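User: I've been trying to design a sequence by hand for this structure and keep getting stuck. Would you show me what you'd pick, starting by listing the structure so we're on the same page?

Assistant: Good idea, let's start from the same input. This is the structure you sent:
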């Protein structure tokens, strides 16, 4: 089998390669950098859905052990708390949130990739060309060793915001960029803040703008200040103003700057996530402002969605229509993420005097009027997308915790192997499937007379009557067999070697 070519050994590319290996699919990961190296702390907040995907590839346990778990987010206006949001922990589940520097996440993924015989990781290979074929892809690279060509079955462009793959495919990246900057500093200091997300509008230490504070491992605090468009970090560092800024929060305590950077954020989504045998994932496909932690978390969910579909195609367990659903499902998730983060940025970075005035007025009202608090947007934190209108999802089913299209409740996930899982209250015949399907008896979780079909990425494909025909139909649909002509962008009805 030709390998899947993955452009970019960032967290999304590495996760894709490792997930492919779970299904016996080899990959070659082409990375432009000459050697592993830190780009900076960047993503710290990892959400439980991403952690579950990372658990599949054996890195979540170490991430959770090393990271700081948090379950509460609080929002303040000046010195008044406006509201808090709690994220309950499930027994047997992942923490709802951990904070861990992206450098550490990448290091753990890299170590896992280096141990994996099916992942061929090549440093110093910058992707410069893509030649699509009917049965495969040729990918050209340039690096220290000169020009090379790689033959692959599919190409996954996980090469970040400036994605060469996206440009070579001629895919647009519409959206907008923000003028205001955000100064992000990781400060090592023995502060007595609790392990919570704390968002301050107009605090005395950044009047008129906002500050976000998060705890990271080793008593390091991620502090995120909104700063004006003409802000310059090096000028502030040299003049001592950065020290004054940090002192306003840490007081007289000793501190050390671990990492500092000023960012402009972007809100952009690729106009298509698939072109023929090439797919875009992670920042190559979408960029969101980070309030809500939807960047890397959604990139990992792209990888989880794409990897099993590529594997099913390569192993001969699906028709071509399954691959179309990657774009259908993840473009829908991206549209939701974009809408949520754009609304947040409209509140955080008003673009007119009228918007600033409205924001001030909402914040002042919110101090005494609980109804106004709903209008305060300090970032809606990432949650699992629900594939309710996906062609793979069999709609309907009884009311209960198992919802068609939604992520399966956490404690049940420990029962699931890398293939499809049927959750049933009593023994059921899943038919003679070519693809891997396991049946798990979970009497208390599934209503009597029903079974749930769960996809390899932990999403419920359907809750259907517990009889052979309905179950086989739901499994076939979830593997892309019944995507009709009008829904299939590949054209024609999918032919599936799923027996049943
Ligand atoms: C300040 C900040 C804070 C953030 N906080 C959060 C957060 O708390 N939670 C969250 O979920 N997200 C957060 N994000 C977003 C997160 O950092 C990104 O979403 C994440 O890095 C995307 O990973 P990726 O693998 O898609 O891309 P990248 O990390 O950009 O990796 C792409 C890789 O591709 C390589 N590459 C590029 N071009 C080529 C080429 N032509 N050929 C081969 N290789 C190539 C690059 O060298 C790189 O290694 C934050 C971002 C910033 C800037």
């Amino acid at each position: 089998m030709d390998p899947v070519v993955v452009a970019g050994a960032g967290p999304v590319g590495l996760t894709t390669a490792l997930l492919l290996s779970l299904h016996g699919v080899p990959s070659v990961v082409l990375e432009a950098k000459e050697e592993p190296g830190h780009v900076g702390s960047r993503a710290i907040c990892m959400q439980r859905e991403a952690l579950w995907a990372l658990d599949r590839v054996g890195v979540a346990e170490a991430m959770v052990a090393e990271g700081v778990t948090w379950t509460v987010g609080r929002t303040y206006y000046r010195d008044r708390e406006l509201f808090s949001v709690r994220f309950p922990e499930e027994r047997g589940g992942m923490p709802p949130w951990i904070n861990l520097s992206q450098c550490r996440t990448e290091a753990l993924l890299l170590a896992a990739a280096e141990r994996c015989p099916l992942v061929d990781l090549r440093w110093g290979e910058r992707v410069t060309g893509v030649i699509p074929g009917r049965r495969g892809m040729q990918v050209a690279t340039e690096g220290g060793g000169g020009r090379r060509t790689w033959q692959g079955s599919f190409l996954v462009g996980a090469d970040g915001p400036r994605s060469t793959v996206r440009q070579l495919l001629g895919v647009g990246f519409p959206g907008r960029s923000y003028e205001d900057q955000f100064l992000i500093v990781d400060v090592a200091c023995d502060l007595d803040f609790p392990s919570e997300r704390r968002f301050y509008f107009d605090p005395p230490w950044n009047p008129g703008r906002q500050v976000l504070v998060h705890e990271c491992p080793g008593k390091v605090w991620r502090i995120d200040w909104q700063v004006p468009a003409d802000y310059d970090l090096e000028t502030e560092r040299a003049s001592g103003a950065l020290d004054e800024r940090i002192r306003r929060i840490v007081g007289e305590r000793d501190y050390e700057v671990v990492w500092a950077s000023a960012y402009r954020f972007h809100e952009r989504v690729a106009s298509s996530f698939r072109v023929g045998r090439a797919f875009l994932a992670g920042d190559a496909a979408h960029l969101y402002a980070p309030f809500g932690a939807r960047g890397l978390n959604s990139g990992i969910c792209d990888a989880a969605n794409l990897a099993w579909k590529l594997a099913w195609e390569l192993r001969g367990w699906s028709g071509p229509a399954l691959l179309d659903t990657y774009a259908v499902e993840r473009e829908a998730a991206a549209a939701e993420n974009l809408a949520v983060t754009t609304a947040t940025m409209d509140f955080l970075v008003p673009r007119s005097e009228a918007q600033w005035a409205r924001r001030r007025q909402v914040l002042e009202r919110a101090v005494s009027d609980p109804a106004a608090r709903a209008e305060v947007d300090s970032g809606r934190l990432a949650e699992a997308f629900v594939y309710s209108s996906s062609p793979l999802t069999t709609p309907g089913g009884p009311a209960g915790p198992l919802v068609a299209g939604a992520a399966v409740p956490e404690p049940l996930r420990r029962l699931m192997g890398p293939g499809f899982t049927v959750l049933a209250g009593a023994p059921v015949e899943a038919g003679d499937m070519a693809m891997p399907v396991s049946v798990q008896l979970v009497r208390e979780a599934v209503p009597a007379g029903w079974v749930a079909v769960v996809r390899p990425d932990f999403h419920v494909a359907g809750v259907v009557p517990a009889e052979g025909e309905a179950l086989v139909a739901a499994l076939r649909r979830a593997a892309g067999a019944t995507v009709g002509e009008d829904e299939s962008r590949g054209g024609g009805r999918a032919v599936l070697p799923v027996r049943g």
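That's my pick for every position. To get oriented when you compare it with your attempt: The radius of gyration is 24 Å. The chain is about 30% helix and 25% strand.
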